[in-house]
Design brief:
This protein is mostly helical and 242 residues long. The chain has one domain (3-232). It is 64% helix and 3% strand.
Amino acid sequence: MDYELILRAGDPRLYHVAVVLATLAGGWMIRRDSRSWACSPRQRVGVIAAVAIFGLIGCAIPAYVVGGPVEELAWTRWIAPKTILGGLLFGFVGAAVYKRLAKVSVETSDGFARGACLMMLIGRLGCIARHCCFGVRVSSGIGFDFGDGSPRVPVQAIEAVVVFGLFVVLHTLHRKNLLADRRLFVLFASYGCARFLLEFLREPVAGSWLGIGAYQWLALLLAGVGVHQIHARSRVPEVRLA
């Protein structure tokens, strides 16, 4: 496998266009959904900014520790490979840190659910154009040649379909006001599980531990956070005596 050859066969310009569109569209939706937060405009901007800053850091950090070609690229290129898994996890941490420091007690997670999913969807379309995140080799005639002469599973397109389905679900939950304060974590749990399975179709470009790839461990962590938060937020609060 020639990782660099496959990347060179892609179109980085379309990838960058997709990233910009993902940021604008997802950011617009987050700004719109955040209007329901019972906090001041300054606090609202602070929460969103914290998520954005921590999310960007989280997207980049895993590449430096996962091993394989991805880590090699991370240490030799100015702009390292990114992963949405780290972005989602760090963004969640960023919101928690800011809210504690700024003493913001209102629930804000639902405001990020649809926007984050929309960003992921458009961003994955950019991966199709860029040829990154490519799939494993398959029999000739049923795969896609990403530039190295080998037919491969178009796993980016498959993931885009999955994320589109998640967006439809989240949009429906939002419109009907179902699973309040848990919608973001439905995304975490669902995408984490889906991504764990999709990684079996993706060419290994990072290290592994106990036979499970580095990005699969991140996916399991994301799913675990999602399941834990859904469970914790679904419990009936105890009745307190005055």
